[in-house]
Structures are given as C-alpha cells and as structure tokens.
Amino acid sequence: MNETPLLPAASLPHDAVEVGRIGQAWGVKGWFKVFAHSPEPEALLATRDWFLQAATQGPKSPFTGTVHLAVREARVHGDALVASAEAIADRSAAEGLRGARVFVSRAAFPAPADDEFYWVDLIGLAVRNREGQALGTVKGLMPSGPQTTLVLEYADEEGKPRERLIPFVSAFVDRVDLPGGCIGVDWQADY
C-alpha cells in the first residue's frame, strides 16, 4: 500500500534533503512536533511541501514508501518545531506520523546570506591548502561549541582511510567555491 486516504503517494524530489523527523502529537487538533536535524530549521519553515518516509523503528506507520504532506503551518516551539497539515485533523492522525523522516527539496531552502552556507552544500567538496595540497574531501560537519568543524576524509600514505578536522572559521577558511567544488584553507597536512 503506497497511499493512505489522507496522504498521497509521491516521489522524492531529485534534490531531496532529509531535514528532520516527526515526534509525538502536540495537542488534540492534529498538530505534531518535528525535530529538525539542524539547530537552524529554516528549510522546514520555508516550504509547505514536505515529503515523508515511514519510520524504520517504533510504531507501525499508516503509509509505506514516500508520501506528500501539505503543511498548513510550522513554527518554532521550545527545542522543536510544531506543525499542522491539511490532511491531519486530530491527535490520532498526528500520532500516526510519529517517527517519519521529513525531506524537503533543496530548491525550497531560503537563499543563505553572504558568507553563509548550508552544510549539505559543503559535503563532497575538495579541500586544498594555500600551497595547493589536497587535504581531503568534506565528509560531514560537526558542531563543536562556538564553531563548526569540517570533517574531511582522506587516505594516508598506506592508502588507509583517515579523518582530518578543520575549524570552519574565517581564520582558517580562505574561500568556499561551491560552483568549483572546492574549499581553500590555511591549514597544513601535519596539523
């Protein structure tokens, strides 16, 4: 079964990004909590077209595959978001969404300000230092207190996979060239 009477079956957009998961019902009028993967959930707040995939653990989902959720309203509430949707009319329907993974189209993200970047756009970029030495490829980003840290993957002299951490701050990052697929840094391989 790929469709419920409430949520139509859908395909994930080609540029879909997983941005959160649905928590418990919130109130009795069909609202539900959403736990964003990012501390700044602009992508969830910017679009009303969410795509859900059933939870892999927890309660049995009333749908399988991917479904489209037309969001009526979403707003920050404490450490999470709360949202309501056209097709979710009561607490019972909201509980049925619990654990679902939430995806949105990357094209729906609001444009970042100058010198701001979405983490998803940095993953996969090559990192080179001022001397042109390849330091690795961005595998992920890690919040570490007041700053974010780039997590690079590279192979050592013996070909073994290794990780390198570089603070993602202007003192070490010279430039981010998204179209060119590269980040330039003031960093050495032996740091």
Automatic annotation (TrEMBL):
This is Ribosome maturation factor RimM. InterPro entries: PRC_barrel-like_sf (IPR011033), PRC_RimM (IPR056792), RimM (IPR011961), RimM_N (IPR002676), RimM_N_sf (IPR036976), Transl_B-barrel_sf (IPR009000). Signal peptide: none annotated. HAMAP family: Ribosome_mat_RimM (MF_00014). Binds ribosomal protein uS19. GO terms for molecular function: ribosome binding. Its main location: cytoplasm. An accessory protein needed during the final step in the assembly of 30S ribosomal subunit, possibly for assembly of the head region. Essential for efficient processing of 16S rRNA. May be needed both before and after RbfA during the maturation of 16S rRNA. It has affinity for free ribosomal 30S subunits but not for 70S ribosomes.
